[in-house]
């Protein structure tokens, strides 16, 4: 097996997050702490359950490490969707799948 590294601009990651949080994922999640930037060391977005936003036991803390892991999993498990990111063809569905890989390591919604 051969392994390679792909670098993504922060702007691409932000576009994925915007597509997810403003459209693709808003049926299952809600941002609990607006104003945080998960690409900055020491910061994270707290993502809660849209159906039960007051149940903080379900919250996930999205940070740079989870984003890197999510991209890796997407490349391995959803290569066609990952290719959309590489082609700069990002939409709400792409963002949703990306966010789910980051937070859960798999696609569990949709």
Layout: helices, strands, pairs:
Layout: H1 10-24, E1 29-31, E2 45-49, E3 60-62, H2 64-77, H3 79-86, H4 92-104
Antiparallel strand pairs: 1-2, 2-3
Helix pairs in contact: 1-4, 2-3, 2-4
Would you write up a description of this structure?
This protein is mostly helical and 110 residues long. It has four helices and three strands, in the order αβββααα. The protein has helices spanning 10-24, 64-77, 79-86, 92-104; strands spanning 29-31, 45-49, 60-62. A three-stranded antiparallel sheet has the order 1-2-3. Helix 1 (10-24) crosses helix 4. It is globular and about 45 Å long. The model has no long low-confidence stretch (mean pLDDT 94).
Calculate the terminal CA-CA distance, rounded to whole Å.
Answer: 31 Å
Backbone shape: globular
Beta-strand fraction estimate: 5-15%
Radius of gyration from CA coordinates: 13 Å
Parts with pLDDT < 50 across at least 5 consecutive residues: none
Main sheet: strand order: 1-2-3
Mean pLDDT: 94
Question: Count of DSSP helices?
Answer: 4
| Helix content range | 40-55%
**Helix/strand/pairing category:** mainly alpha
Biggest sheet features:
3 strands, antiparallel
How many beta-strand runs?
A: 3
Q: What is the H-and-E element order?
A: HEEEHHH
């Amino acid at each position: 097996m051969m392994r390679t590294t792909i670098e993504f601009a922060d702007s691409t990651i932000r576009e994925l997050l915007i597509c997810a949080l403003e459209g693709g994922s808003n049926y299952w999640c809600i941002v609990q702490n607006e104003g945080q930037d998960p690409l900055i060391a020491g910061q994270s977005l707290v993502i809660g359950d849209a159906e039960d936003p007051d149940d903080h036991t379900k919250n996930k803390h999205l940070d740079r490490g989870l984003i890197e892991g999510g991209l890796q999993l997407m490349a391995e498990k959803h290569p066609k969707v990952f290719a959309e990111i590489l082609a700069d063809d990002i939409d709400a569905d792409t963002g949703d799948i990306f966010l789910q890989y980051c937070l859960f390591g798999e696609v569990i919604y949709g």
